[in-house]
Amino acid sequence: MQKIPVVRDKRSSDILIIPSDEVVKIESIRDKEYIVHTANDKFYWAASLEAFEECLFEEGFRLIDQMNVVNMNHVKEYDPRKGVVKLQTGSSTSYKTASAAWIQGEHVTNLINLLRKMKDLDHGIPEEDDDIFETILAQEEDYRFARSYAMIKALYEKKKAEILLEESELRYKSLFEHNPDPICSLNLSGHITSVNPAMFAVAGYTEKDLLHKTIDTLLVPEHYARWSQSFFETLKGATPHYELSFRHKNEDRLVELSVLNFPIFVGKQIAGVYMIGQDISERKRAEEMLIRSEKLSIVGQLAAGVAHEIRNPLTSLKGFVQLMQSRVAGFDNYFNIMMEELERINFIVSEFLVIAKPQSVKFQPKDAAVILHNTILLIGSQAIIHNVNIVTETDHDVPLINCDENQIKQVFINILNNSVDSMEEGGEIRIQFKKQEDGYVLMRFTDQGCGIPEDRIPRLGEPFYTTKEKGTGLGLMVTFKIIESHGGKMKIFSEVGKGTTVEIYMPAADSASC
């Protein structure tokens, strides 16, 4: 839109700037002197009209008599008998008139219709676009008028093309920004040029975080070669489909993405790469749970069979020990120890059956510190043999926990045995029981053993997965299962060469639901 510098009158030196859209007509006084009319006012303009002629012509101004250049966009009425046009802007009640007596009335009518049609583009492109331009141009013989119509037609087509381009860009922008899957574009050197909001929802990264950076800093190292190969394949025109693991920005976890690459064409040349991802983290977790479930099913069947086979000879052994105890004198202490150990084996077999099927257990309020003390008495000799010292710290206000005492004892035995086994050269196991503000009891076991590699910790508790040379992985699996059945949580932290910490959170008796 053009800006026209004007003054109030010839004597004024204060220059005002008026947008050409507010001007309804420019009235010639003499050479290079004009009165500039708006619907409500008028101003003085001393300049050459030729300086603005082309620009004003494009914006709809037309010379309709020797005295008046009229903005045809503001023509509201035209009286062909009097040759007068009425000029009015918007909803204003004020108006101006201009003479068109010297020119053909049909020309003014054509201008009004054509400019009105171009104005209609402000409301969108009509579904049925009648070609009024071709009709009027075909009937016009005066080249002066035909030139005016042709220019309006050119402006109409230009404006229409701009609207179509803008609509296309808005559709693309909407598809890009509102797509639920993360999308990013990269240039030929692999630097990110744009990122949609879904990337933040999925992986925590915004466009500001990633713009003009490479994507390799987000990937797990073992996936970089896969991404690099797919990127260069895309630059050759391929559309590879593959999976990547991203580091989440705000959380300590990986985001699994199924990614589709396709090239960005500018003209006939590849100018970059689009990457469209789909978050498959939940699907991956579901697959892992399915595999674990299948393993548990196999272990359950094995456990049931093994437990059955052990219990048969165990019953016989108990019977013979009782028989010998009744007939042989002087060895009661040994027979008592044997009976206790046989009962212990029987108990372990019962715990083994936890894997096979749910057991009927009775939860009662128990003092976890007392259970721990009894457990330490059982495995104390083993700790002494391995030169391991067990230190306990129990707060005085630790509440009771609702539990099955034998199962919690089994948990303590499993954890302490693992700690002792990890300290071949001896060391210390520190056990802390604390009351938590959230209604839980924290039971923390810290050893000075060999530690566990970080990448193995997430898989602890899976059947047959163990860090021990001769282990089966069943002990920790049973431990996790017991804690879970008690409504508790168990976390394992470890560092190679420095030791392992196991934290168990159990609901206090007054807050547990059993």
Mean pLDDT: 82
Termini separation comes to 77 Å
Major sheet: size, sense and barrel closure?
5 strands, antiparallel
Radius of gyration: 44 Å
Secondary structure tally: strands: 22
Name the helicity range: 40-55%
Q: Label the structural class.
A: alpha+beta
Tell me the strand percentage band: 25-35%
Query: What order do the strands of the largest sheet run in, or round the barrel if closed?
Result: 5-4-3-7-6
Number of H/I helices: 12
Name the overall outline. Answer: rod-shaped
Poorly predicted tracts of residues: none
Structure description:
This protein has 514 residues and is an alpha+beta fold. The radius of gyration is 44 Å and the shape is rod-shaped. The protein has helices at residues 50-58, 105-119, 132-139, 143-177, 198-203, 207-210, 224-235, 281-327, 332-356, 368-385, 405-422, 474-485; strands spanning 3-6, 16-19, 23-30, 33-38, 42-45, 61-63, 68-71, 75-79, 84-87, 96-99, 183-187, 192-195, 241-247, 254-266, 269-279, 364-366, 388-394, 401-403, 427-435, 440-446, 489-495, 499-507. The chain is built from 12 helices and 22 strands. It has a 5-stranded antiparallel beta sheet with strand order 5-4-3-7-6. A 5-stranded antiparallel beta sheet has the order 12-11-15-14-13, with helices on both faces. The protein has a 5-stranded mixed beta sheet with strand order 17-19-20-22-21, with helices on one face.
